[in-house]
Amino acid sequence: MDNLMSEGLSLMVFGMGFVFVFLTLLVFATGFMSKLVTKFAPEAKPQPAKPQPAVAAAASPGNDELVAVMTAAVHQFRKH
Amino acid sequence: MDNLMSEGLSLMVFGMGFVFVFLTLLVFATGFMSKLVTKFAPEAKPQPAKPQPAVAAAASPGNDELVAVMTAAVHQFRKH
Amino acid sequence: MDNLMSEGLSLMVFGMGFVFVFLTLLVFATGFMSKLVTKFAPEAKPQPAKPQPAVAAAASPGNDELVAVMTAAVHQFRKH
Amino acid sequence: MDKLLDLWLASGIYNVTPGQVFMILIGLLLLFLAIRKNFEPLLLVPIGFGGIMANIPEAGLAMSAVENAIHLGGPEMLQTLSAALNINSADPAVVTHAYHAADAATHTAAVYAANDHGFNNGMLYNFYTVAIASGAAPLLIFMGVGAMTDFGPLLANPKTLFLGAAAQFGIFATVIGAVSLTTLGIMDFTIQDAAAIGIIGGADGPTAIYVASLLAPDLLGAIAVAAYSYMALVPMIQPPIMRALTTEAERKIAMVQLRHISKAEKIMFPIVLLILVALLLPDAAPLLGMFCFGNLMRECGVVDRLSDTAQNALINIVTIFLGLSVGSKLSADKFLDLQTLGILLLGVIAFGIGTACGVLMAKVMNKMAGGNSINPLIGSAGVSAVPMAARVSNKLGLEANSQNFLLMHAMGPNVAGVIGSAVAAGVMIKFVG
Amino acid sequence: MDKLLDLWLASGIYNVTPGQVFMILIGLLLLFLAIRKNFEPLLLVPIGFGGIMANIPEAGLAMSAVENAIHLGGPEMLQTLSAALNINSADPAVVTHAYHAADAATHTAAVYAANDHGFNNGMLYNFYTVAIASGAAPLLIFMGVGAMTDFGPLLANPKTLFLGAAAQFGIFATVIGAVSLTTLGIMDFTIQDAAAIGIIGGADGPTAIYVASLLAPDLLGAIAVAAYSYMALVPMIQPPIMRALTTEAERKIAMVQLRHISKAEKIMFPIVLLILVALLLPDAAPLLGMFCFGNLMRECGVVDRLSDTAQNALINIVTIFLGLSVGSKLSADKFLDLQTLGILLLGVIAFGIGTACGVLMAKVMNKMAGGNSINPLIGSAGVSAVPMAARVSNKLGLEANSQNFLLMHAMGPNVAGVIGSAVAAGVMIKFVG
Amino acid sequence: MDKLLDLWLASGIYNVTPGQVFMILIGLLLLFLAIRKNFEPLLLVPIGFGGIMANIPEAGLAMSAVENAIHLGGPEMLQTLSAALNINSADPAVVTHAYHAADAATHTAAVYAANDHGFNNGMLYNFYTVAIASGAAPLLIFMGVGAMTDFGPLLANPKTLFLGAAAQFGIFATVIGAVSLTTLGIMDFTIQDAAAIGIIGGADGPTAIYVASLLAPDLLGAIAVAAYSYMALVPMIQPPIMRALTTEAERKIAMVQLRHISKAEKIMFPIVLLILVALLLPDAAPLLGMFCFGNLMRECGVVDRLSDTAQNALINIVTIFLGLSVGSKLSADKFLDLQTLGILLLGVIAFGIGTACGVLMAKVMNKMAGGNSINPLIGSAGVSAVPMAARVSNKLGLEANSQNFLLMHAMGPNVAGVIGSAVAAGVMIKFVG
Ligand code: NA
Ligand code: NA
Ligand code: NA
Question: Where are the transmembrane segments (chains A, B, C) (predicted)?
Answer without folding.
Answer: 12-32
